[in-house]
Amino acid sequence: MGPAHEARDDGGGGGEMIAELSRSLETLLAAERARFTAEHPRSAAMAKATAAHWRGGAPMHWMNDWASPSPIFAAQGVGAQITDVDGKLYDDFCLGDTPSMFGHGDPSVAAAVADQIKRGAGFMLPTPSAAIVGKLLAERFGLPLWQAATTASDANRAAIRWARAVTGRPAVLVFDGCYHGMVDDAFVVLKDGQPVMKPGLLGQVHDLTATTWVAPFNDLAALEDALASDQVAAVLAEPVMTNCGMILPEPGFLEALRRLTRDAGTLLIIDETHTISTGPGGYTRAHGLEPDVFVLGKAIAGGVPAAVWGVTTELSARMDEAQARIGPGQSGIGTTLSGNALAMAAMRAMLTEVMTDAAYTRMLAGAERLVTGLRGVIAARKLPWSVVHVGARVELVFADPPPRNAAQMRKVLDHEAVEALHLWLINRGVLIAPFHNMMLVSPVTDDAAIDRLVAAVDGFAAQVGEME
Q1: In what order do the strands lie in the sheet with 89-92?
Q2: What is the pLDDT of residues 180-194, one digit of tens each?
Q3: Start-end ranges of CATH 3.40.640.10 in the chain?
Q4: CA-based end-to-end distance of the chain
Q5: DSSP-assigned beta bridge partners for residue 235
């Protein structure tokens, strides 16, 4: 598992060792799958019934992306725990892959949503909460002017469209390995150093590489080369990459990104949908970033579908000028449900009562406990692993040192080992994000849950160690 085994594959028996470990992992997976199936008869029955009417067996195909042989059907979530239909209790470190980052069933959000739904979910008109939410967003994140969307995908699409309208340039630059929701422009990666459309992309009839440029994260020379052209309208970036494993920015990289984009007349869009785990004002406020556009989805409404994006006063004026040049008609930006009354009520509760400084203090302390515990396991068992984190978001990486870009991460991402770890954790009452080894700590995650997660990882490491 990880680069330690790759390093041994030198013709001197390393290949056989990798093959033996792979067979051992498959044996472990078979045993863990059998255990899951035996312990989840109701989920298995529901999965069979659901498959009769939901394509792929679930309302959304990602619900099938867990390591379990069939989906876990959730009965309820309370705080940082989920109970499934078989009565199994889980410590939840996935938290809906961020929408429930502050815990399930928060009383403040529940009360706000219940009150608003009785008075109407949406009117295509602003509500009194809108005025309050706008002020709170400006105060918290530093950008003065905002718009609402239904998802971060929608917000990113709007930001890209406006960037092209304002600059008159066709291209957008993203980083290899990024993910910004269902934004077509972001589905470009590097293969052997060349931009290609992301493998598996469905139904795309246009060559996205014509207007999407891609650079490796943390590669200033590549970034500078890309921005030397006058064709790039915007750079769309997470300040910490979180979808291909977690990749931290190297010192000075983000500062250089801001300087280079300004010099090139290129707008900088910072997508904080995941990095809001950093602190109350996101990574942007914590590290003094100065984006032209700030995007935030998922957690902002406590799980109610909603997103927001903010712009500087200067960019807002340029948007007005672009709108005047283009003239009246349909902009193609926005959906009917964007900014609805229900979402505004939920955002108001989140910004005033849930996403507090005290909540972040608890989250960050819990994340430090988790990081310390995982690093203790790694040190005690002399594993070629590492731990990286941004605020309350923690990643266990099967490599040491952690990769600095997506190309390096792809080489060490052992999908079989990831699947084995995830199913091992599920069978021991722990959920982490299903796509790699990402873990979120909420303000209502208690120390005992963190310790159970660490102990479960240690148990997995011990089992794998016996196989080698």
Answers
A1: 74-78, 81-84, 89-92, 430-431
A2: 999 999 999 999 999
A3: 107-354
A4: 10
A5: 173, 268
**Phi, psi dihedral angles at 303 (to 5 degrees):** 105, -20
User: What is the fold, at CATH topology level, of the domain defined by 28-102+357-466?
Assistant: Aspartate Aminotransferase, domain 1 (3.90.1150)
pLDDT tens, position by position, 77-132: 999 999 999 999 999 999 999 999 999 999 999 999 999 999 999 999 999 999 99
**CATH 3.40.640.10 holds for 107-354:** yes
Domain with CATH 3.90.1150.10 in the chain: 28-102+357-466
Please enumerate in sequence order all residues whose Cβ is within 8 A of that of 432, keeping only pairs 6 or more positions apart, or say none: 93, 94, 422, 425, 438, 439, 453
Tokens of 130: 């809108």
pTM higher than the cut 0.85:
yes
Report the distance separating Cα 324 and Cα 150, nearest Å. Answer: 26
pLDDT, residue 324, reads 95
Q: Which two tokens stand for residue 37?
A: 């199936």
Residues in the chain: 468
Model pLDDT for residues 410-455, shown as the tens digit of each residue: 999 889 999 999 999 999 999 999 988 999 999 999 999 999 999 9
Contacts of 46 (CB under 8 A, 6+ apart): 73, 85
Tokens of 21: 């470990």
